Task: structure prediction
Amino acid sequence: MIPYSLLDLAPVCEGSDISSAFANMRDLARHAEDWGYQRYWLAEHHNMPGIASAATAVLIGNVAGATSRIRVGAGGVMLPNHSPLQVAEQFGTLASLYPGRIDLGLGRAPGTDQPTARALRRYFDNAEQFPQDVNELLHYFEPAQPGQAVRAVPGAGIDVPVWLLGSSLFSAQLAAALGLPFAFASHFAPDAMDQALMIYHRNFQPSARLANPHAVLALNVVAAETDEEARYLFTTQQQAFVNLRRGKPGLVPPPIDDIEAFWQPHEKLGVAQALACSVIGSADTVRDGIRAFIDRHRPDEIMLTANIFDHGKRLRSFELAAQAMNALPT
Result:
């Protein structure tokens, strides 16, 4: 069995509110810890009514304080939106409060649209500076040297595992060159997954941070008591993707009986392509689907995610997924 982890966006559902989303987030994290999940990651998004994880570092502290063992981190912080020094200070603080439990995943995209990127006072062309920003950030975690003009306090000399995240080949190449672990966003952009993994493993250079390559793949998993129920629950995520492509992001919608009446043929095709890395079904179906995904792509770790409207159903889905992972051969 390979390690399995959980990616959350603190979803805000129709008829609910952000405070309830955060309560559900803490509840899910506590259950995930009991179910054997390795990590609980939150992702930075902005100006998205259905995603409440914009202040990612704040929520990581909240989740870490509500749990005791599970690693908690960013999957990820969108570095073009921040100065490397501020990120080092934030995660140095978190790692000081929760030693040995904090992960920092870094993304190159702004995680939002152009007007919101401008409102953040950091501009999307900063993504071109991503390699330099990553190196600057790594430097702030090194022990401070005598006479060093700028240091991260806290941050300097603190062990914070840094990951690179990506949905293309760029971050795979950079993670390999810097000797960092790599997580691929196959849960919504699977097209370059196999090529990115090949590049990462082929070009990996051992570093003081990581001796051997470590690649994580993200997978949508919706598990329920029957295949039919799981497919029904999955219509929430399918609708959310269509709404996003229509330029109408909103709160997380409830599932619907007839998804075919909701979308146009081209929208159905686009969602099928974007969500190709998905396993939907009963406990047996999910176990077999996860096993096939692992056997085909050989990740070192798998990151499970699910956008399910009902909190109780979402809990049950992640519980069944954990049982499926534990039933896999070693």
Notes: The chain has eleven helices and nine strands. The CA atoms of residues 80 and 129 lie 8 Å apart. The first strand starts at residue 4 and ends at 8. The two ends are 4 Å apart (CA to CA).
